[in-house]
Design brief:
By secondary structure, the chain is of the alpha+beta class. It is built from four helices and seven strands.
Length: 168
């Protein structure tokens, strides 16, 4: 994967961040729902005190820990293998696919604008960046989790420097 991205000739790498699509957004919603539902169940177990409350609470906690353990393991694996990553380079942006190959790439010189759309809520938080080609059509769209604030700042800064027009 790293070789494929380097072969694009986009220069020095500034920063990388994970990319999510619809399945990633659904996973984020599901993970947060499991957490909220688990907390509600635990509060119910404390208030009602049914028989075997400790065993039932342990099962709920085990499910929550298992879900978050899967998330942690997936993030480490995806980061090491370069799966679903967005790479900011000096001369362009490259996005890798599910197997680590380059899915999409665009040079800064071919872009007219970069538009940022934020979505924040209790169950989901992400940023979508739309890269508009000089001809006006959508060159590429990238959705990243909102936790990548430094990545978003670098992307906007590079867009302002390279394109010359303010990113919105």
């Amino acid at each position: 994967m790293a070789r494929q991205v380097r072969e694009l000739g986009f220069g020095r790498l500034h920063r990388s961040a994970s990319v999510i699509g619809v399945p990633g957004l659904l996973w984020q919603l599901g993970r947060r729902f499991v957490l909220v539902f688990g907390v509600v169940l635990l509060v119910g177990l404390v208030v009602m005190r049914p028989d075997n409350a400790v065993v039932k609470a342990a099962i709920v906690v085990a499910i929550i820990v298992a879900v978050y353990g899967l998330v942690f393991a997936w993030r480490r694996l995806a980061g090491r293998l370069g799966i679903r990553q967005c790479h900011l380079h000096e001369d362009g942006v490259a996005v890798t696919d599910f197997v680590g190959g380059v899915r999409d790439a665009v040079a800064w010189r071919d872009l007219a604008t970069v538009r940022e759309i934020n979505a924040r809520g209790v169950l989901a938080a992400f940023r979508r960046f739309e890269f508009r080609h000089r001809t006006g059509h959508l060159a590429m769209a990238v959705v990243v989790p909102s936790v990548h604030r430094a990545f978003a700042k670098d992307l906007i800064r590079l867009a302002n420097e390279k394109i010359g027009a303010p990113a919105s």
